From TrEMBL:
Name of the protein this chain belongs to: Alpha-1,4 glucan phosphorylase
Essential cofactor(s): pyridoxal 5'-phosphate
EC primary class: transferase
Catalytic reactions of this protein: [(1->4)-alpha-D-glucosyl](n) + phosphate = [(1->4)-alpha-D-glucosyl](n-1) + alpha-D-glucose 1-phosphate
One Pfam short name: Phosphorylase
GO molecular function list: glycogen phosphorylase activity; pyridoxal phosphate binding
Length: 826
């Protein structure tokens, strides 16, 4: 056993000074890459620098892990099917506190930090807000010293790369790992076996009890791959453990020798498919089954890993909830509940009641949707095929739960049907949200409005059954990435004026409020925004060949393309401006650049057609000299974290226009406000709390609230009537339908119009149109008064302190997880 401690080994590896870092970069060029550091290229330099910083992370990670064990800390297991981490070089550099040193190191090689990070691929582990939230939460857990781990899947291919061809979305594989990932550690020594398919059988145990076991199952190996997440300058490092699927048997030698070369590799290919791609197309039965397999795969490996750590403590199983809490990020990991039950009753021979008490005290569930159609269900037949033992356990959970419901609400048969985990129908479904509620000790929404809406709608029956089980924790974003890293000019200005404590205490931004009236400060604030616009202009030109005006208002709508997010409403406003300008070139006072970005799910026809509409309207507007002096439209392909880091700091107007009652929270709205953008939005999700913190007069609120939406639906909603009584709306719809934006093709956008008129306008685009257009006119009016706009911009940033993910994580830690920040052992 070496006598040296980790600190001594790290000192030998090298310090944080420029000379030590340069030497380490050169050493990694030689020893890791086998290359001459005198002939380096940009990518190999990035790799060597990443390995250099990883050296400094790993020692602190081991110290952190030792502290967990030595202090017997209760740990958080954060389970999420997505982690949208983006790039790691700049964020790790900032968290380690070596930004100045790394910049000098790169200068010696003739490269900037921005250029070095350009060589890194965005980690393709998520789709949108769900995964980005999870990544923000891990950053905050590390920065606050909350003991915990993130768990997910190491997807070989991310969601997809989006290109725009002839105005339409085209998908290509997101091969983000094609050149490896220098930030990760492959932990083959900690593999677990995951079982699938097979059958359940009953047997008599040696103690005489009747037991059940899983027989004749297929096996897949789960290989852990760790990515390290540093806290902000506190020496604390946690890890995101991602599972990679490998075959239990890589190669069938008998089949190979018999000449059946293809089949000899079948097991390996089938197993590796599990972690191949994020969100396989589930319009096909095979795609749905693969997605179920993915969910169980990472859950099974994670629960086994959790039990491995717990067993080291040599405690009674009743202590498990005092040592671990499992946070289910949406229903994707909800199969963890029957999985823990299976391990406790089948492998450790606990009786049902004891195991269920342990289980119910271990799990917490975060819900992210208010729409019933978005709640995850699985066909019972499919689940029985893939997870036969778990179906039996779910049925027993449900049987006992139904007995409780009968006892609580005798004679209410309809309630039993509504609350049953297994839906009673011709094609029975397992309701995963119901399972998550029944098997967890607490359920939280993700904004104040969302928390109330789920209690009044999708979970109303469960609230009556378990009135104390529901709460809400408003989402948050990490200020390290979403201001300190992505907006250097503004970050430096804020630090100059109020100090740098805001980076870990975002409430400090309130100190900016007195400066909002200061003309000099306003001028410097404006110059910061202009600098970020110029940066975006250069990025758009070099990356996409787009030429953007730097001095216009940047009106930005970037998020997943979905009908409820109402990109269509924004397009209708663009067409309205087009119509106004065609009639009178001076009718629009403010030059406006509308920027769109976002991906549509490959199988989501209408969302993809909306992308085509955005690009088609843009093609006509941008080429029309009667219009393009005041209005232009840009769609930036392949929206991802690194692109958001360029767009958000440059934004003037943030579009958060989902129908009230459909967006659970949103986090993009928080990022924009933090960077000084003014929000145009509905009273939906966290927009309401942003309004409360920032002040309604510094936002542009429009449209119906959630109660008004419900009342309008109840009383009968007629979109045709609205279209016939609003001249500008009728004109905009006419131009979309008559071929003006489709080279005369009247059929191209008919499916979109059909959703409005024949489909009932589910997301009430037409109902909110007039209020939205009027709000946009108020935007123009305020923009013309530069001082007032800048004052509102400053106050948006100043009021964003509540939306730090640090605050959100402390809410979870105190009110849900029962954990406290931990000091590392010396």
């Amino acid at each position: 056993m070496p006598k040296k401690d980790i600190a001594e080994f790290l000192e030998e590896i090298g310090g944080m000074d420029v000379e030590s870092l340069v030497n380490c970069v050169c050493r990694h060029h030689l020893s890791y890459l086998g290359r001459d550091y005198g002939r380096t290229d940009l990518f190999s330099l990035y790799q060597s620098l990443a390995y250099t910083l990883r050296d400094r992370l790993v020692g602190n990670w081991i110290k952190t892990q030792r502290s967990y064990y030595n202090q017997r800390a209760k740990s958080v297991y954060y389970l999420s099917l997505e982690f949208l981490t983006g790039k790691s070089l700049a964020s790790n550099t900032i968290s380690l506190g070596v930004e100045k040193e790394v910049t000098e190191v790169l200068e010696k090689f003739g490269v900037t930090l921005d250029e070095a990070e350009g060589a890194e691929a965005d980690a393709g582990l998520g789709n949108g807000g769900l995964g980005r939230l999870a990544s923000c939460f891990l950053d905050s857990m590390a920065s606050l010293g909350i003991p915990g781990y993130g768990y997910g899947i190491r997807y070989e291919y991310g969601i997809f790369k989006q290109a725009i061809e002839n105005g339409e979305q085209v998908e290509a594989p997101d091969d983000w790992l094609h050149s490896g990932n220098p930030w990760e550690f492959n932990r083959k020594g900690f593999m677990f076996t995951v079982r699938l398919y097979g059958r359940e059988e009953q047997y008599t145990h040696e103690d005489g009890s009747v037991r059940h076991r899983w027989a004749d199952s297929a096996k897949v190996m789960a290989v852990p791959v760790d990515m390290l997440i540093p806290g902000y300058r506190n020496g604390n490092v946690i890890n995101m453990r991602l599972w990679e699927a490998q075959p239990a048997r890589r190669f069938n030698f008998d089949l190979f020798n018999s000449g059946d070369y293809i089949r000899s590799m079948e097991d390996a290919v089938r197993s590796q498919t599990i972690s191949k791609v994020l969100y396989p197309n589930d319009r096909l039965s095979e795609g749905r089954e693969l997605r179920l397999v993915q969910q169980y795969f990472f859950v099974s490996a994670t629960i086994q890993d959790m039990m491995r750590r717990f067993m080291k403590l040599k405690l009674d199983f009743s202590e498990l909830p005092n040592r671990a809490v499992v946070q289910l990020n949406e229903t994707h990991p909800a199969i963890a509940i029957p999985e823990l039950m299976r391990i406790l009753i089948d492998e450790h021979m606990l009786n049902w009641d004891v195991a269920w008490r342990i289980c119910r005290r271990t799990f917490a569930y975060t819900n992210h949707t208010v729409m019933p159609e978005a709640l995850e269900t699985w066909p019972l037949d499919m689940m029985r095929k893939v997870l036969p033992r778990h179906v039996s356990i779910i049925f027993e959970i449900n049987r006992r739960f139904m007995e409780d419901v009968k006892s609580r609400f005798p004679g209410d048969e309809n309630r039993l049907k509504r609350m049953s985990i297994v839906e009673d129908s011709d094609s029975p479904q397992v309701r995963m949200a119901w399972l998550a509620v029944v098997g967890s000790f607490i359920v939280n929404g993700v904004s104040a409005l969302h928390g109330e809406l789920i209690k009044k709608s999708i979970f109303q029956d469960f609230v009556e059954m378990y009135p104390g089980r529901f709460t809400s924790v408003t989402n948050g974003i990490t200020p390290r990435r979403w201001l300190r890293q992505c907006n250097q000019p503004l970050s430096e200005l804020i630090t100059e004026k109020i100090g740098e404590d805001w980076v870990t205490d975002l409430a400090q931004l309130r100190k900016l409020e007195p400066l909002a009236e200061d003309p000099e400060f306003q001028d410097r604030w404006y110059k910061c925004k202009l600098k970020e616009k110029q940066r975006l202009v250069e990025y758009a030109r070099s990356e996409y060949g787009l030429y953007l005006p730097a001095d216009w208002m940047y009106d930005v709508h970037v998020k997943r393309i979905h009908e409820y997010k109402r990109q269509l409403l924004n397009v209708l406003h663009a067409v309205t401006l087009y119509c106004r300008l065609k009639k009178d070139p001076n009718s629009v006072t403010v030059p406006r650049l509308k920027i769109f970005a976002g991906k549509a799910a490959p199988g989501y026809f209408i969302a993809k057609r909306i992308i085509r509409l955005i690009n088609s309207v843009g093609a006509v507007v941008n080429s029309d000299s009667a219009v393009n002096h005041k209005l232009r439209i840009a769609f930036m392909p392949n929206y991802r974290v690194s692109q958001a880091e360029r767009i958000i700091p440059a934004t003037d107007l943030s579009e958060q226009i989902s129908l009230a009652g459909t967006e659970a929270s949103g986090t993009g709205n928080m990022k924009f406000a933090l960077n000084g953008a003014l929000t145009i939005g509905t009273l939906d999700g966290a927009n309401i709390e942003i309004m409360e913190e920032v002040g309604r007069e510094h936002m542009f609120i429009f449209g119906m609230d959630a109660d008004e939406v419900g009342a309008r639906r109840h009383n009968g909603y007629n979109p045709s009537e609205i279209a016939s009584t609003d001249q500008e709306l009728a004109e905009a719809l006419h131009y979309i339908g008559d071929g003006t934006f489709s080279e005369g093709d009247r059929e191209l956008f008919r499916p979109i119009l059909d959703t409005l008129f024949n489909g009932g306008d589910q997301y009430m685009v037409l109902a909110d149109y007039r209020s939205y257009v009027d709000a946009q006119d108020r935007v123009d009016e305020l923009w013309m008064d530069c001082k007032k706009w800048l004052r509102s911009s400053i106050l948006n940033t100043a009021g964003s302190g509540h939306f730090s993910s640090d605050r959100a994580i402390m809410d979870y830690a105190r009110n849900i997880w029962g954990v406290r920040p931990m000091k590392m052992d010396k």
